[in-house]
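Reviewer comment 2.1 asked that we show a complete input and output for one of the modelled complexes. We chose the fe (ii) ion case, as it is the one discussed in the main text.
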Amino acid sequence: MKLKLYSFLCLLLVVCALPAANQQKIRIIHGPYLQNVGANDATIVWITDKPSVGWVEIAPDDESHFYAQERAKIFDTKIGIKRTSTIHAVKIDGLQPGVRYRYRACAQEVLEHRVNQVVYGSIASTDVYGKAPLSFTTLNPQKSAVNFAMLNDIHGRNEVLEQMIGQCDLAETDLFLFNGDMVSWTNDQEQLFGGFMDKAVELFAGSVPMYYCRGNHETRGPMAPYFQDYFNPKEDELYYMFRQGPVCFVVLDCGEDKPDSDVEYYGITAYDEYRTQQARWLESALKSDLYQQAPFKVIVCHMPPFGGWHGELDIAQKFIPLLNENKPDVYLCGHIHRYSRHGAGDNGVNFPLIVNSNNTLLKARVDAGRMDIRVYDLDGKEIDRLLIEK
Ligand SMILES: [Fe+2]
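Response of the prediction step:
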């Protein structure tokens, strides 16, 4: 009898809890973080725990309170419709170069679509009251100097990521480069965020731009085809270029390291063709004013163009002749987990090349006449320096 009464009470508790669970307010569970910040635009990405429509409210970085007036809203839309999703990405256009903007990311739950009627639920947003609103500064090609930092091959080691970011003066760092293999593979979204991105958001990624260069490990796992939902979400491709201050950055997407036919890939990859298509883009990118007129040119690519594996050989064959013709100042890569620096002429590469390790942080300061790259170990000790003066 006692057992029956106990079972009945348990059932009652579950039944009572169900409506309460459904009524739980929507929450932002990851982000927001910046992507593809340019001179006139920026993308903001955040993730909610329920399907919702998303928008960003943007305000100038002046003395006014964020609540002083209704702020401009830019919605997450596609083909003219506000997207219902848990992954939100808003591209803000029409910004001024080198200007700081404040923002708030918001999402309203979509409970139901009843034919053409939409039933909305609660709203979640980032805090603009309890603390200073999030803010970012657009790029400025006229800026006299740029400071950037690069790390790679973190493979989900949040503590190493934190140690490296801790070595950077965030107020002085214009941008971060994540040069691939930030996780070893991705089974689901939580692995992606738990592996490094939540930590990056906690430390800087909502306010300092991060540019992602995909490694070969981000190509692995059930989440791999959805990588662009989270990074470069509003861009055509994962290879792209941008300029900050005197530097033009060209970010390349290396693909996998073994032949596409290798048993490890189970027939899902087609990187040979992808690198051929990318080389066509690179050829025109290197002829552009953006590249040609920049005082310094930096190539960012996860894999080096040497080492003897298929992906490296394909990069050497398809990208390096184009780069040799349009000499960048330096090629920054990782992948090997061992630090090395190579002078112009080594391995058929007619410009300096740095292979950053999985435990070293690269920091650079570049002005119109000189690029000063320093590399630090996890204790903050300088282990190498490359100085290029013009
Ligand atoms: Fe790698």
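Residues 2-22 form the longest helix (21 residues). We note this here for comparison with the apo prediction described in Section 3.2.
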